[in-house]
Design goal:
Helix 5 (66-90) packs antiparallel against helix 10 (168-212) and helix 8 runs parallel beside helix 10. This protein has ten helices and no strands. 76% of the residues lie in helices and 0% in strands. The protein has one domain. The chain is mostly helical.
């Protein structure tokens, strides 16, 4: 239940990007704020913090779910590499740099949040959030929880615009990076399992024949 809503997000987000400017999308989202919203959204943004992903991996490690730990670690590493390379390659300005002298009158910032000015594209928090929650979506038994997981990932992405850390496109691409990282890594491990299975079966068959003779 994670990936169907994610596809819907891709379509809706893509249409929004195609029909609205970067400035319009940012101001329409960042412009809707309140005092209580500042507090809540500040908390929501930690859903996309790498530390949160680290806590999930640590819980898997101490519960001896080693295979899942290594899959999740691979997802986190892939997300980190892609995001950091892209950030420094594009070196896109963040909202407070983009709006320049207009920042004070147009951009809402939260006073206790340190707002960055460079390396905006793509959003690392969004990539980490979508990477983590899509990873959890593929390993949990109750697939209905995927709706909650995609909602949490979207909240993390929304928080980055609310807090004036990123533009809509940064979040949109970050969500793709995170989700595709999970698909690639998890798919690789599943493919590795299927290709190694015939060898295991052959070995077991040989052992059985040896025992019977």
């Amino acid at each position: 239940m994670f990936f169907l809503p994610f596809l819907l997000w891709l379509v809706v987000g893509g249409v929004m990007l195609a029909t609205h400017s970067q400035r319009e999308l940012f101001l329409s989202i960042n412009g809707e704020h309140s005092d209580w919203g500042d507090v809540v959204v500040t908390g929501l943004t930690y859903l996309g913090d790498g530390i949160m992903f680290g806590i999930v991996l640590f819980l898997m490690l101490i519960t001896q779910r080693f295979r899942l730990f290594f899959i999740g670690l691979a997802v986190l590493l892939l997300v980190t590499i892609i995001v950091q390379v892209a950030k420094h390659y594009f070196n896109a300005p963040r909202p407070i740099s983009y709006f320049g002298d207009e920042t004070a009158t147009l951009v809402h910032t939260v006073r206790w949040v340190n707002v960055h000015s460079s390396c905006s594209f793509p959003s690392g928090h969004s990539a980490a959030a979508f990477g983590m929650f899509s990873f959890l979506a593929v390993i949990i038994r109750n697939k209905k929880l995927g709706l909650l997981l995609i909602a949490m990932a979207l909240c993390a992405g929304y928080s980055r615009i609310y807090l004036a850390q990123h533009f809509f496109a940064d979040v949109y691409v970050g969500s793709i990076v995170g989700t595709l990282s999970t698909i690639v890594v998890y798919g690789f491990f599943k493919f590795r399992d299927t290709t190694s299975s015939p060898e295991v079966c052959t070995e077991a068959l040989l052992q059985t024949n040896t025992t019977t003779t």
